[in-house]
Design brief:
alpha+beta, Aminoglycoside 3'-phosphotransferase, Chain: A, domain 2, Phosphorylase Kinase, domain 1
Length: 359
């Protein structure tokens, strides 16, 4: 058996020889003779679009001319760049590598196809996947909130994911599915981070109740504690509007770095309250929760009642409120954090989130 190719650390490591070694695990004899960069984005997880040529088209099978290579390359924008040991942010890359390598092949989910994925189990991973830009797909944008029909379609995809391993204790045996959001939320509420972000433009319109760090920390702790019990499934964990793409009337899911085992409201609340305008959310949220519940009920025997889901939904809004407090130089813009955080703050006030959390 051929040894696994080394994980790339720099863009220069993405060579024809390296990609050949990745693809030969499923396409024996294939050889890439040329690889050129068609675009790239360096961030927490760098993405490079590459065009390739093959030495023998008869061996390529289903392999495309263009790929997107997502890799946790070494760069100073990584939130764990200065960590001497892997921390909660390092787990993001490991989890996504595991998801595409170990779980995605079992899912009938609309998501980017992948041909290779691997991780070093500590802080790095790589995924060779479909180039959605080259395929002409469109993507969600925070400044273009979605209508109820599109959110309903996305919730149907969430139900497919949740149902696949619903209350499946085998998922307890997969370390990469342990809760990552709790440690991250706690890190966002510590004084060092708080003192920085509270001065930033995104917090100019922050409601008074969200200016009290103690209240925020207590709400986070209550949300994390509530999430420990009840029905459990594999959740996307970061199902915001920017992690959706569109294929005609179908909605696909992107970026599984925060994949974990949790309650379904993790995804339902983050999608529904963050992807819609406040007015549309107020009008449609109950019917959309029932739409999701029906999609889940069609696949599992023990779906929560609407009342149970409603309570979990209210509690989980704190997840989205934390957009205000993500590190200052993280991926999303100040406008994104203010807009999306504001949608969740409005929902939290409308629906009595603090009361639901017991804070």
């Amino acid at each position: 058996m051929n040894a696994r190719p080394a994980l790339p650390r720099q863009p220069e490591d993405l060579t024809p020889e390296w990609l050949t070694a990745c693809l030969q695990s499923t396409h024996p004899g294939i050889r890439i003779t040329d690889l050129s960069f068609a675009g790239g984005h360096v961030s927490w997880a760098s993405k490079y679009r590459v065009s390739v040529r093959y030495d023998d088209d008869d061996l390529r099978g289903d392999l495309p001319d263009q790929f997107c290579i997502k890799a946790s390359l070494d760069n100073p924008s990584r939130p764990d760049a200065d960590d001497t040991e892997p921390g909660p942010f390092s787990r993001l890359w490991v989890a996504e590598g595991h998801f595409y390598r170990d779980l995605a092949p079992e899912l009938e989910l609309v998501m980017p196809r992948s041909w290779y994925a691997d991780t070093d189990e500590r802080r790095s991973a790589v995924i060779v996947m479909e180039d959605l830009v080259a395929a002409g797909y469109s993507f969600g944008r925070f400044d273009r909130p979605l209508g109820a029909d599109t959110v309903a379609a996305a919730l149907e995809q969430a139900a497919v994911l949740h149902a696949q391993w619903w209350n499946d204790d085998r998922m307890l045996e997969r370390p990469f599915l342990t809760d990552i959001l709790g440690p991250i939320f706690h890190a966002l509420a510590v004084p060092a981070n708080w003192d920085d972000v509270i001065q930033r433009p995104r917090c100019a319109g922050l409601p008074d109740w969200l200016r009290d760090r103690t209240v925020v920390a207590r709400a986070v702790e209550a949300m994390v504690e509530h999430a420990r019990g009840g029905p459990a499934c594999v959740v996307h964990g970061d199902l915001h509007i920017g992690n959706l793409y569109f294929v005609g009337d179908t909605v696909g899911l992107l970026d599984f770095q925060v994949v974990s085992r949790g309650r379904p409201a993790v995804d339902v609340a983050y999608l529904l309250a963050g992807a819609m305008s406040t007015s549309d959310r107020r009008t449609h949220e109950r019917e959309l929760l029932e739409h999701y519940r029906q999609a889940l009920t069609a696949r599992v025997d023990s779906a929560p009642s609407l009342d149970e889901l409603w309570l979990d939904y209210r509690r989980r809004l704190m997840h989205g409120v934390m957009n205000y407090f993500t590190p200052g130089d993280a991926d999303q813009s100040e406008d994104y954090k203010a807009t999306v955080g504001g949608r969740f703050a409005a929902a939290a006030e409308d629906l009595g989130m603090l009361s639901a959390l017991g804070v």
